[in-house]
Amino acid sequence: MNIIIIANGLFPTGAWVESLLKEADSIVCCDGALKNYIEWASPREGFRKGVAVVGDGDSLDPDLVTAARQEGFEVQQHVVDEQEYNDLTKATHYAIAQARLSGCKESAMRVCYIGATGLREDHTIGNISLLAYYMELYPEVEFSMRSDYGTLIPMEGRKRFRSRKGQEVSIFSLTPQVPLTVEGLQYPIQGRCLDAWWQGTLNVALGDSFEVSGGKVIVYELRIEN
Fold first, then answer.
1. 140 burial class (0-12, 13-18, 19+ CB within 10 angstroms)?
2. Domain 152-222 homologous superfamily, CATH
3. Is 54's pLDDT higher than 90?
4. pLDDT of 71-124, one tens digit each?
């Protein structure tokens, strides 16, 4: 099941997002992101009219919901009042719970976040770090975060990534006490503990794949084409 969660950051403009949203089985917007999705989808054909909006409701204009429904969008609003988690986390819990109710196993779920970066830097850093948190909560779900510039993927243990020769790659270790090994990049890492975020950045793929093994890691791959 392809689940797309849209945050209220910088909505992507590349052609790639059209195919991503057309293939979506479920689209969930954080409160303030509904406006961006409606503006993007309204002039286009073949996109899901059914969309859930999840959050505490503080950044969602009721007039927007009414206007969207008048345009034919099936907007389902789910207000979560608690303030312990941000809207992105609330949307994630909701989307996975709904997928479970439909009979989908977590191992068959692919959750992709868009609009989660750009604009405010504190939100960007927080949202990226949440990828590792979601991976801990739902270890069988495949998570990714995409923008017009690249893709972020959380992992733990060992994982092989598809790439293209010359593609730029950065590795961010979230467990600096655990040695990290990376093969298939221009600057290989062999059993090294990365105790600062910059230490695994600005690498380059040598071929069509590379492998990362170690602790909790977020891998960034620069987008080659839109």
1. exposed
2. Thiamin pyrophosphokinase, thiamin-binding domain (2.60.120.320)
3. yes
4. 899 999 999 988 788 999 999 999 999 999 999 999 999 999 999 999 999 999
Query: How far is Cα of residue 192 from the mean position of the Cα atoms in its chain?
Result: 27
What is the reported pLDDT for 17? 96
Q: ∠147-69-22 over CA atoms, to 5°?
A: 35
Cα→Cα distances 61→34, 53, 68, 86, 96, Å = 9, 12, 11, 18, 25
The CATH number of domain 2-148, selected from 3.40.50.10240, 3.40.50.1820, 3.40.47.10, 3.30.70.600: 3.40.50.10240
Measured CA to CA, the distance from residue 52 to residue 76 in angstroms comes to 5
pLDDT for res 226? 57
Which pair of structure tokens corresponds to residue 111? Answer: 């959750």
